[in-house]
Amino acid sequence: MNQTYGIAGVTAVVLATVLVGALGLRVSRTTSDFYVASRSVPPRLNAFAVSGEYLSAASFLGVAGLVLAQGADMLWFPIGYTAGFLVLLAFVAAPLRRSGAYTLPDFAEARLESRAVRRIASVLVVGVGWLYLLPQLRGAGLILRLLTGAPGWFGGLVVAAVVTVAVAAGGMRSITFVQAFQYWLKLTALLVPAVFLVIAWRADRAPAPAWDERPVFQRSTRVAGDRPLTLTVHEPVRVTGTGTVDGRPLDGGPLILGAGTHRVGAGTALTFPPGTPVPLPDDGGPGTAPADWAQPLSAGREQHGLYATYGLILATFLGTMGLPHVVVRFYTNSDGRAARRTTVVVLGLLGAFYLLVPLYGVLGRLYAPDLLLTGDTDAAVLVLPQRLIGGLGGDLLGALVAGGACAAFLSTVSGLTMSVAGVLAQDVLPTLGIRNFRLATLPAIAVPTAASTVVTDLPVADAVGLAFAVSASSFCPLLLLGIWWRGLTRRARWRDCSSAAGPGSPP
To answer: Which of 67, 185, 322, 364 has the fewest Cβ atoms surrounding its Cβ within 10 A?
Structure first.
């Protein structure tokens, strides 16, 4: 990937984000502007913004990386991500908007008339938000590391600084325009290169993928890793390289890797000839067994593959409705009808986006299998333009993809920071106001940024799946029962306790 073009693409997106965030100073004047955009965002614009913040680094980079590494059953992630909005449309969007709350803790307190429940909801909002922020910041580090060679923590720090300025400057009203712009940028950044990649793939006349076999290097491929690797080779293969293999130094000359296990030292670079089966680091792991990659269920990955698949679907399907940065956007609609219209448009926007992601995973299996060795499978979307097209066209498309990836984590980090800062400003700081909201923005982004420097080996989509699981098991029942079950009230709880204690018992 050409670093100059990639840096230019990322810089353009960052400058656009900062510019729109700075313009928020002119359009955001009241407390309501900062928290819920004065509840006046039109449905279509709000749908663009919801899609912009929902399609995170896990969607743009992580899903394709998972399909590349682990196979077809990873497509349940985008299916669950999108289908979750059906539940929002049917059960949550309109009633939640009519509740008049600013945040999920507001809704919890109003429904159960309990400050303790509010505090618990606040802790969960902050926890889910920070857990979701970690993979976004890791994605930022991955982008800048590929472009500049900078350490992984540097990308997260840059994103944190940009988001802090954008969110603190204009709050929800300005971030709405930023996220709407970033959705269309992300869709363009996947769609345009996909067209050229498919044309190049067909022109290359590469053989059809043999999904029941191990991936094969289609071209002479150089693999360089910064960490030690243990490779399993099934048939002897002739390679060239520098570094150390099995404790023996290489000076650029040829080497025969015999069948068996080989230890590759850190910083070693090996060049494999075309047609060589990829010596995967962990033989027998996910996606490496014959026919395992093409299985639609999690067989071979868990003891109970079917149940593991159902668990993944339920976590993503039900977790969507409890994600704080998604729910808070429905408070910005003018009424319940507008909230429903927003959700319908979001379903179409997400569907269009996720149709493109599997293509990058499949092409990555063909043209970037070396990422399985280095562990950088999340980078498949970024490296494919140069692998298939090359030249100036590959550089320009690579810059577009890099800009789209930058927009992916910037938009989601902005939404998450908004939701966490809103809760901190209401429940931690003494008074509700613009100044306190801006103060709350700092810890909202600073804590996960610091944590991301410690948590380095974090698969993007897997970590997001964990955030969805926490959301599904906490906010999903709160919203469904709080909206549709009249018995979920503080008064009903005391009545049930008194009945269980028997007549004559003290209340």
So the answer is: 185
